[in-house]
Amino acid sequence: MESQNRLRSRNQSHKTETQQQSSGIMNKEEGLDLISAEEAEVRISAKRQARFEARNMRMKEIEKKRKEEEKDPTSGNTSGPDSTLIKEEKRNQQRNYSSPRKSSSDCSSEGESENYNSNVRDLKIELKELEEKFRKTMVTNAGLDNEKSSLVYQIDLLKDRLEERDELHSLVKKELREKHRQVELLKKSHDDAGRSVRLLQAQLDEQCLLLTERGFVKVGSTELIDTNDDDTIFPPKEEQEKRTRGIVSNETAHILSACGSGPLDLQIKRLAEERNDLQDTVGRLKLDLEEQKTNNLKLERLTSEEDAEKEAKRLIDEYKFKFQKCEQDSATLATNVARLETQVVRFKTAAETAERSEHELKAERRKLQRELRESSTRIDELETSNKHLEARLAKLKTAKSNLLKEL
């Protein structure tokens, strides 16, 4: 009975363990991910050890019972159902032999009844032993059935997890293919942007060549502050206003170079200041002319008319010549300033549009490069996760194969 209780307690503990394992597997989705091949082997070895211990206990109990049967005097010559059959045949023969002498041999009948009672006692003992063995075998069969059902349940769970891992693996492969396709599209768009940038650069070079052939030159500062290949720091608006660019003829460029170095706006401002200075000079000369006229009138009164007229004519001619020269210089400067102002306005708009398009192209290039880097890092992460999943799948397959071999 103690052995039966032990077996029952062991089976119940095994059932509770299997139920706990199954509930843990059902509740935690990532439970099987943590089970490696080594843990499966450890569990299998523990189960083997438990079965081996149970087998040893059963063998010890059987040996103990055999020893008790050998020591029991009531079961002295009985060795199973064959001996009982032999004894019954002997009793029948003795009965048949002693039936005609029943009246004369009372002592022999009493001995036969005692033998019959002892045989019945032996049969009852053997029946109890057989019932005990049957109960033990039923208990062991129930434990084995429970173990089998738990193992079948675990195998079904492992199959379900394996199917889920296969689906997850296929989804990861699909996502990897999608990311690879997106990377290819990004590379293609990056190549298109590079080609467009090269085309714009070629157009700018061709524009410079055509301007040089037709006698025009670019004026103004066109530098940009380049830090690296990816990013370009554009100057602020104040600096961009100072770095105005324009296309002028060689003569105008020579005039602007005579005004000194610097941006185009500054050179035009210098020309305007020079024009204002010349206009002031012309005004002062006009005032001087008026003063000279008044002086001439005074001289006419003092000197003779001929000398006064000659001197006045000479002075008038001289001042007229100076005045005409000043007016011509002022007119040329005014026309140059007006032409330069119109050219400055036109080239300002062209430069702003070109700089805006260039800024947009470089911003798009930076964006594409950043997306390319992000997609490459994402691809690397997906590849590493795919490798981890494949390794886990291989471990699960090995664990499954080991469990199937054990079953």
Question: How would you portray this structure in words?
Answer:
InterPro entries: LRRFIP1/2. The chain has 407 residues and is an all-alpha fold. The protein is built from nine helices and four strands, in the order H-H-H-H-H-E-E-E-H-E-H-H-H. The protein has a two-stranded antiparallel sheet with strand order 1-4. The radius of gyration is 60 Å and the shape is rod-shaped.
The count of β-strands is 4
Total separate domains: 2
Q: What is the rounded distance between the termini? A: 30 Å
Please trace the helix and strand order, writing H or E for each element: HHHHHEEEHEHHH
Name the average pLDDT: 73
List the uncertain runs: 25-34, 73-86, 96-105, 221-244
Strands of the largest sheet, in order across it?
Answer: 1-4
The largest sheet is: 2 strands, antiparallel
Task: Supply the number of helical segments.
Answer: 9
Query: What is the 3D shape?
Result: rod-shaped
Strand content: under 5%
Radius of gyration: 60 Å
Helix fraction bin: over 70%
The secondary structure category is mainly alpha
Family: Belongs to the LRRFIP family.
Keywords: Coiled coil
Biased composition (Basic and acidic residues): 48-73
Protein name: Leucine-rich repeat flightless-interacting protein 2
